[in-house]
Amino acid sequence: MNAYIDSAVQQFKTLLEEQLARTGRMENAAAPKDFTKLPVVTVGVIDGDGIGPIISKQTTRVLEALLKDEIAAGSIVLKPIQGLTIENRLAKGQAVPDDVLSEIMTCDVLLKGPTETPKGGTMESANVALRRALDLYANVRPVAVPDQGIDWTFFRENTEGEYVLGSRGVEIPGKLCMDFKVTTLPGTKRIARAAFEFAKNNGKTNVAIVTKANIMKKTDGRFSEICHEIAAEYPGIEAEDWYIDIMTAKLVDTRVRSRFQVFLLPNLYGDIITDEAAQLQGGVGTAGSANLGDQYAMFEAIHGSAPRMIETGRGDYANPSSLLRAAAMLLRHIARAEKAAKLEAALDSVPHDGDTAKGFADRLIQAIES
Ligand code: IPM
Ligand code: MG
User: Fold this and answer.
1) pLDDT tens profile 219-269
2) Residue 121 lies in a domain
């Protein structure tokens, strides 16, 4: 038993040192890149697994139609990134193989289809690995149901919490296991700032800070405190504390939910509650997701690779809406707001109707070009 304890203590020391080093890197981060002023924007397109290549292909067609002129002029480059497939990842034994990561790092922004995460084993999720490698700390997920007055934007911390050491817990076989949750000062400040800046720039007056600080006293307690410190710099914006359990209830309370505007939350709560919110909008297939960092940004569908659709031969019917919503967010991020609005208008007006991915894209392109 003592040997297990010694090795766990040693591991904890290593983790602590690594996380301290990470806070140092965050404190000394390079100045953020201005994505709105790039003379040439390279958009890496990653297909992913399962239905990924199908929805990615159709989303690319829609983007090519929208951006014809700029692609022809060379100011926007759509660059296919190969090799982020489950087969290649397993063969190389890496969540994101080194050569694929180098290719990815030649891009400014990424459009990514869903990637499969093997259950069990030690292979980490490619999403989580990419968020970490590119330091994509803000997961921004909008959900809107206009006829119910719902217009929410979630700012989910994307690099810390339960995710940062998710595959590095300790275990004493037959006895117990422990995972770790990490909240850092610079990591919390930067996500809080992102949320309050968004609120300020978009005329929002309320930010809900959602934690379980009554139970997770250290990590969530500090998360909430630090968010309030940042909130103090934004006088016109009210910062409210909520616990995650009651917030999941409030999201389905039709009497109060429309008063919420911006949500600011640690990683795992953000993961869970954004699926709930997306369901209110019509399902996870309808919501886009942005992973924003200071040097890179990645836009993706919030759903998985739907292997069952492929196994049962229904892959062609995969709905590309979520990835298309993500593509609209990408366009806004690179200051192509007009194109983003055009794509969103097409998505709002063209019903999906259970069509094939290609059929749906054809109708969207028609709407865009008309
Ligand atoms: C999400 C997904 C991912 C997450 C999975 C695929 C690792 O659920 O983007 O919300 O847990 O963050
Ligand atoms: Mg999720």
Assistant:
1) 999 999 999 999 999 999 999 999 999 999 999 999 999 999 999 999 999
2) yes
Alpha-carbon distance values, 114 to 52, 68, 148, 204, 221 (Å): 5, 26, 29, 31, 33
Ligand of minimum distance to the alpha carbon of 117: 1
Instruction: For residue 42, report the distance from its CA to the centre of ligand 2, in Å.
Output: 27
Specify the range with the lowest mean pLDDT, choosing from 61-65, 127-131, 195-199: 127-131
Determine the residue of 49, 127, 156 to mutate for testing ligand 1's pocket, defined as the one with the most ligand atoms within 8 A of the Cβ atom: 127
Q: In 3-state terms, what secondary structure has residue 237?
A: coil
Q: Give the Å distance between the CA of 236 and the centre of ligand 2.
A: 32
Taking CA atoms only, the protein residue closest to ligand 1 atom 9 is 302
Phi, psi angles (nearest 5°) of residue 307: -55, -30
Name every protein residue with a CB atom under 6 angstroms from any ligand 1 atom.
Answer: 117, 125, 127-128, 271, 302
Give the closest residue to 58 by CA, choosing from 4, 120, 111, 135.
111
Model confidence, pTM:
0.94
Ligand 1 pocket mutation pick from 271, 298, 322 by most atoms within 8 angstroms of CB: 271
Is residue 326, in this structure, part of any structural domain at all? yes
Q: How many CA atoms does the CB half-sphere of 177 hold within 13 Å? A: 8
C-beta of residue 57 within 8 angstroms of C-beta of residue 45: no
**Per-residue confidence (pLDDT) for residue 120, from 0 to 100:** 67
- Residue 217 covered by a domain: no
Range of the domain at 40: 31-136+293-370
- Asked if residue 216 is part of any domain, the answer here is no
Domain count, the chain: 1
Which chain residues have CB less than 5 Å from ligand 2, an ion? 271
Q: Provide the CATH number for the domain around residue 309.
A: 3.40.718.10
